[in-house]
Amino acid sequence: MLLVQNLSVSYRSFTALNNVSCTFDPGQLVGIFGPNGGGKSTLVKAMLGLIKSATGTALLKGKPLTQQLSQVAYVPQRSQIDWDYPITVWNVAMMGCTLQTGLFRCPSRQSRELVKAALQRVGMYENRDHSLSNLSGGQQQRVFLARALAQEAELLILDEPFNGVDQKTESIMFDIFRELKAQSKILFVISHDLSETLDNYDQLLLLNKRVIAQGARHEVMTKDNLLAAYDAPVWSIAP
């Protein structure tokens, strides 16, 4: 179980996240939604200790998540990645095994097999020697998903993974998410996509600096909740 307790983040006098508490069970795909500036990315970064929280904590199996980062695979927003860095598809995926093998040690046979299987699963093994910068947006996102798979983490967090990707990539990703759920993984997906893809999630978390609602789609995506989250009517969604 992943437990977030009273998590708050402030920047001087600005409150970015206000007393967020929520619980997530293994084998769940969780969609995190809300407006720009609503605290979605801030929440996961505070959980991971990437930014300092004013109050609260995140616990995985009863222990601080910040002490178990080897159990977390984090794929940041595309805007935070240097796509011009000269690195191959294979080496990006191999980064998922760095914690196990060590930064300056040669990858083990097991690590190489894990990376090969991960790249095959996302349909990118044939591109393993290609430069990351020469791939399409959807292909790049699949490579970073392969890196997360190779890590074999208990918690996977993907920040806006569907931005700029094609339908094939989106379908592959949701298929893999279902497989990981069957392995009792917990998956967080931060997204802006308020469409029929919502049906893929077991649980939704609607944020606007605080928890507006958490639960199944029909419980969360009501007109009142959307109005509270977005400060305006959002008529494109039916509860």
TrEMBL record:
Taxonomic path: Bacteria, Bacillati, Cyanobacteriota, Cyanophyceae, Oscillatoriophycideae
Coiled coil (UniProt feature) = none
Domain ABC transporter positions: 2-234
**Sorted alphabetically, which Pfam families does this protein's record hold?**
ABC_tran
Q: Which GO terms describe its molecular function?
A: ATP binding; ATP hydrolysis activity
Similarity section = Belongs to the ABC transporter superfamily.
This chain's source organism reads Crocosphaera watsonii WH 8501
Q: Which UniProt keywords apply?
A: ATP-binding, Nucleotide-binding, Transport
The protein in question is named: ABC transporter
Instruction: Check the record and name the PROSITE patterns matching this protein.
Output: ABC_TRANSPORTER_1, ABC_TRANSPORTER_2
- What SMART domains would the database entry show? AAA
